[in-house]
């Protein structure tokens, strides 16, 4: 099969190149794979596409996506709002704070950006059944896109650890639900085992095609602002999204579309902070947490698969990885809703809680242009709101 836009798979550690995705880990060293391009050959085409008039959305950037638009499985994802803060920015003494509201995607979270590309790839390679492990948002997104594509969907969820609203989405869209004793990390282990048998196509963020869709968040932010922001703050769970957004900004500079990149600040909840803990201790390896616990269920992950890519994003951008408490997350959720009109699920509000902590830690300048990524809608996790108000 001809690979769209001349992409290839490359190990993030040993840089071994592969021409197919029989596995999403390197056969030589076992590390994760990423998608790269012959950038000089796509640069002119990509820049020309940006000059064309048209609405925003994931598929606006098809010239830098590794799948064919002809087979696109889409629900109209992307084109989410970028609203400028008034009250929060004034309260913090900051001049430019924006919220990238990914809760406006079709199933209510940023996962749809990656799922449209991953599901399109599944169709291209002839997959019939897709599988994921999920704390909620991935399952909702996968089930919807599988329904759109006419594929069967199997969701592995940690028993008792998924928000009811998210589970309901997966059920309504026709996914088969399997409960796993243990947390998300155990569910992901089982999902990887199923995919290794060759009968299921895995669409968790281990899948580099999903990362390619999620990187379009960076492209949209740049187009909406008319510039590269100074700082981007992102909630971190399995660490695929911060890695994806960083890749998007890096590619814009690599293609000479822009001449700078933002500082990436990742935010983890105190009860599920293996990456931020390693960062604070200046350790080069992230040790899994056996029992992660936080009200922010979407980032309740103890063994993040993309930790190495996340630490690289923070290091290369001159950013940071921070820890916030559950009480700080819930306060940020309420202030975002009542003060800015943006209703975010707890995990999404972690970026706003992280903004406050970054300011206290003098990681921000008062005149910096700052974007907080709000990853999912508050209606997806209503139980927390009921119990905290």
Task: Describe this structure as you would to a colleague.
With 389 residues, the protein is of the alpha/beta class. The chain folds into 3 domains: 4-54; 82-109 and 210-388, Rossmann fold (3-Layer(aba) Sandwich), CATH 3.40.50; 111-206, Rossmann fold (3-Layer(aba) Sandwich), CATH 3.40.50.1100. Helices cover 40% and strands 16% of the residues. The protein has 14 helices and 13 strands. It has helices at 39-51, 87-92, 111-124, 137-149, 164-172, 184-196, 208-214, 216-225, 240-254, 274-280, 307-317, 326-340, 346-360, 382-388; strands at residues 8-11, 17-18, 33-36, 82-84, 96-101, 129-133, 152-158, 176-180, 201-202, 231-235, 263-269, 320-324, 369-374. The strands form 3 sheets. It has a 6-stranded mixed β-sheet, sandwiched between helices. Helix 3 (111-124) runs parallel beside helix 4 (137-149) and helix 8 crosses helix 9 (240-254). The longest helix has 15 residues, at 240-254. The chain is globular, with a radius of gyration of 19 Å. The model has no long low-confidence stretch (mean pLDDT 93).
How is this structure best summarized?
This protein is α/β, with parallel strands linked by helices. Helix content is 40%, strand content 16%.
């Amino acid at each position: 099969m001809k690979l769209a836009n001349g992409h290839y798979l490359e190990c993030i550690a040993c840089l071994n190149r592969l021409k197919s995705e029989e596995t999403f880990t390197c056969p030589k060293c076992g590390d994760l794979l990423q998608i790269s391009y012959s950038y000089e050959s796509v640069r002119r085409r990509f820049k020309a596409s940006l000059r064309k008039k048209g609405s925003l959305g994931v598929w606006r950037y098809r010239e830098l996506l590794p799948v064919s638009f002809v087979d696109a499985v889409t629900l109209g994802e992307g084109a989410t709002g970028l609203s400028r803060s008034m009250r929060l920015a004034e309260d913090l003494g900051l001049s430019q704070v924006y919220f990238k509201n990914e809760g406006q995607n079709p199933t209510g979270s940023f996962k749809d950006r990656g799922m449209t590309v991953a599901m399109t790839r599944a169709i291209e390679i002839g997959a019939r059944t897709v599988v994921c492990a999920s704390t909620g948002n991935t399952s909702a997104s996968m089930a919807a896109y599988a329904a759109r594509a006419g594929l069967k969907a199997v969701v592995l969820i940690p028993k008792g650890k998924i928000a009811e609203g998210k589970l309901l989405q997966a059920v309504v869209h026709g996914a088969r639900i399997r409960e796993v004793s243990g947390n998300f990390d155990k569910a992901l282990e089982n999902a990887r085992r199923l995919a290794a048998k060759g009968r299921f196509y895995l669409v968790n963020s281990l899948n580099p095609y999903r990362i390619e869709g999620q990187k379009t968040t960076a492209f949209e932010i740049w187009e909406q602002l008319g510039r590269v922001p100074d700082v981007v703050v992102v909630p971190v769970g399995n660490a695929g999204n911060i890695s994806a957004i960083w890749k998007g900004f890096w590619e814009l500079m690599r293609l000479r579309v822009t001449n700078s990149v933002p500082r990436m600040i990742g935010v983890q909840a105190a009860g599920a902070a293996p990456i931020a803990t390693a960062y604070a201790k200046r350790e080069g390896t992230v040790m899994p947490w056996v029992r992660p616990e936080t009200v922010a269920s979407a980032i309740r992950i103890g063994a993040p698969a993309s930790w190495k890519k996340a630490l690289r994003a923070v290091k290369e951008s001159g950013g940071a990885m921070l820890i916030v408490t559950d009480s700080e997350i819930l306060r940020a959720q309420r202030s975002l809703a009542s003060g800015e009109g943006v209703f975010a699920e707890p995990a999404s509000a972690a970026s706003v809680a992280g903004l406050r902590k970054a300011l206290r830690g003098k990681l921000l300048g008062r005149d910096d242009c700052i974007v907080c990524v709000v990853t999912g809608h508050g209606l997806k996790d209503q139980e927390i709101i009921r119990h905290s108000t």
